[in-house]
Amino acid sequence: MAILKGKFLSGILGNLIFKPVKGRLIVTSKVASGQMKQTVGTKKASNTFCMSSRFSKNIRSVFEGMIAGREEGTCQSRLTGKLTASLGACRDSETRLFHFERNSFSNLSGFDFNADSPIEKNLSLMPLVRLKNNRIGVSYPKTVNEQKLRFPKHATACKLTATVGLIRLKDGKKVLNPDQQFIYLQKDELLTDQLNFSFKVPSGCLCIVVLFLSFYKKDVLLNSKIFNPAVICDALISPGVFQEDGQYTWEDMRNLKFN
């Protein structure tokens, strides 16, 4: 049995062995001595893992414009591990069909795209994400005490960007132009009242809400390969059936549909 330990799956799923090693997820096959044929269970587990790996790459590509190549080396394997757990829980073991609910991907909440610069070092409390009537809100409740960003040395300002990436799971499509909203904060400026974003989202989509922190010294960007705070705040499936309205540009996720 494989379980989620921290950022990685650990253990055995079917005939696959998941083993975290020095910040990376190593996946190997468990093969009995003298036998090379896969069992039905192994093939099923392997298929789910392969789908998760492809799904991970597609999710990262949705946000590539903001990540800009500044994720660290374990991002792909860590995200694949999270998705393997989610998809495995949503897939019928007999029919192999997926049954998704609103919070089927809630385990993505808190996922750092760059493990070397976790968001908690700069933001002690994550904002609340709400989905109602095809609108996603990102803000702090009024009951939350005043929040400030922790600025790295030499930083004088921060551009805080909220982005909503959309995935049409059954159609196998991803959005090419995710909606973005942002605010600028000066050092020691309160965050609580200013962080209040609202996005309209279509029905029947996985909505992945990501927060990016871009720090500046005057006009010079300080973010780098080893410092690029970016976190998934939440991942929610909007109720209903998707209907095309021409608002978004979509791209096929090759060989990836969740029926």
Structure write-up:
This protein is 17% helix and 33% strand. The protein is built from three helices and 14 strands. It has helices at residues 40-62, 64-67, 75-90, and strands at residues 2-5, 8-13, 16-21, 24-29, 128-132, 135-139, 157-168, 173-175, 179-186, 196-200, 206-217, 220-221, 230-237, 250-252. The strands form three sheets. Strands 7, 8, 9, 11, 12, 13 and 14 form a seven-stranded antiparallel beta sheet that branches. Strands 1-2-3-4 form a four-stranded antiparallel beta sheet. A three-stranded antiparallel beta sheet has the order 5-6-10, with no helix packed on it. Helix 1 (40-62) packs across helix 3. The longest helix is centred in the first third of the chain and has 23 residues, at 40-62. The relative contact order is 0.17.
Task: Describe the protein's topology.
Elements: E1 2-5, E2 8-13, E3 16-21, E4 24-29, H1 40-62, H2 64-67, H3 75-90, E5 128-132, E6 135-139, E7 157-168, E8 173-175, E9 179-186, E10 196-200, E11 206-217, E12 220-221, E13 230-237, E14 250-252
Antiparallel strand pairs: 1-2, 2-3, 3-4, 5-6, 6-10, 7-8, 7-9, 7-11, 8-14, 11-12, 11-13
Helix pairs in contact: 1-3
